[in-house]
Structures
1.
Amino acid sequence: MVTPVRLFAVIALTAATAASAQSRHNSNAPIDFGADHIELQDKANRAILSGSVSVKQAEMTLNAARMTVAYTGQVIDGSPQVSRLDASGGVVVTRPDQSARGQYAIYDLNRRVITMLGAVSLLQGGNTVNGGRLTINLDSGKAVIDGSSVGGTRTNSDGSTTTTPGGRVTGRFSVPKRN
């Protein structure tokens, strides 16, 4: 069942992200990364990145304290084919027109979807929406935020913290100046 609050958030964010749908994310672009430490686990087809992890693909950047990179057994042009990124610890996803923050993120490269969990906030222009789970479809630019069954503490863009109640999507939409 779609609650009125969730429906409102979907409508507002779909309208707000219409501009980003015009410039679809290139999920076929190579992924560049930097981290303080990397552990390769070839038999498990994964790499563990830790310490100020930064991943960049096309115009999107994903920063976190730790990230697991899962790849298929296929190697094309000398590179393993990445299928999924699991990030944790102060995750920030930045695109040219928006940024999102949360505690955890999963980037499914096959589906071209990013799912963020844990005191999530999405900022675009002067608009902010907060919730428990954020799903961003990189093909359409559509973002959906759900409430959370548990409360949490969120760090705001100005560095202050806010305690959030469980189960609610909250936010602030900017209003253009009128004469």
2.
Amino acid sequence: MEPFELTDGTVLLRTPTAADVDDITRICQDPDIQRWTTVPGPYLREHAVGFVEDFVPAGWAKGGPTWGIRESERLVGMIGLTAQPVRSAEIGWWLDPDARGRGLMGRSVELVIEAAFGRLGLDRVEWRAFAGNEASRAVAVRAGFSMDGCIRGGAVKGEARYDDWVGTLLATDRR
């Protein structure tokens, strides 16, 4: 799949590039991103380089797009879909602490959901978060995800297992 942009006039979602590596590295130092996502810790510049040069292009090639979230062209976060079998994907995101609380993630999730069920032709999008990540859960609930449960020990980060919250959104669901 060829990369494409999404915007609602406030946020712009665009594929991250080498020019974003330093911002990605800086943002991923945030303790909440380290705690609630699967980014490596400590997060090094080489991780951001590998993310931009390898992970992102490979994802787009396999139908799993990743976008940098931009406000006034400034990178403030990341959002993406990981392709799953039979017209399904898992959505994931993180946001710079300085950009939180202004609705940017909610707007970004809505843009990605619209693209998932429209342009990408998906039937289902799944959201997962380590149990306790109330901020991510709030965004998912506002976007219309049903909270389907908790999978005990369902998430892995490094050598540790964590309980995993799961929510789903179907193309046929009211939002």
3.
Amino acid sequence: MSGFSTARLKMVDGQVRTTDVTDRRILDAMLMVPREAFVPASRQALAYLDLDLDVSEGGAAKRFLIKPALTGKLLQAAEIDENDNVLVVGCATGYLAALVAKLARQVTATETDSALAAKAKDAFAAIGLSNVTCKAAACADGDSSAAPYDVIVLNGATEVTPDRLFGQLREGGRLVGVSAESRPSRAMIVTRSHGEFGYRPLFDAAAPVLPGLERAAAFVF
């Protein structure tokens, strides 16, 4: 077993299973998808650590792969079906979208940094994924061209209500991510039913805020 394969197994056993992620499909996906393939070469040694991993390379804003444990818990909460059409928002280099592609029928991923979006496309091709696409787009905008979605997953936190994303959910669809609109920040699931949106907190969680989903700066005298 290679060094990365061993690290991947330790990540799943030591970080993900221990946080009550029990869905076999998610665990298998995390064992199969090589996280190091979505990390710059200079930081691949950090690929399986329990941290939000900075994958930006001189871009306008830092971009991250969120912690493995949080990744697994959000995916479990999303209850992605093999026939689902899924949107991954703020995918950075595409690791979360690659995991979702192992669970869903079709995946659309968006990323604000066009250079990182290109890296995500290259990584998808390198590991043989054909049911996921990545587009350069603002996090708040989503991608209406492939909507409506059964599931929307945020690769990070939002400090505002992402109304445009809510509008791209199918009836019965759900959005999962970290809400940092108040403190403490929490993982949330939002479901659409009869045109209304219901919110349910899942657990306390912290993640980097996605660009474009930050709270507006307050005026200071």
4.
Amino acid sequence: MSALTYAGRTFRFSVDNGVVFHNTYSADGTALHYETVAGPAEGTAEDVRLHAAEVAPGVFLVGWTEASGMTVTHAMNLNAGTVHAFWTYETPDGRVGELHTGTLEEI
């Protein structure tokens, strides 16, 4: 695997549903600090451990589990500045999943 080129960088991730995150990746690419800067959960932040793999040059599959039990997977294309995201979470009616797209901008 080549270098995790997202490591040590911070990106603004703007999701198609209006939610915006600031995602800061650790220098070794194994951890993420995210802050929700727009949307219903604005003001929330968390540090998570990452599972990551480069699946094509500049394209990374990155996943984690949040303290709430929400699971998140990003297919991050640093060449195009895009993300395909899939997350799951519990509701009173059971676990649901959502697929979203978004853009990345280094900040």
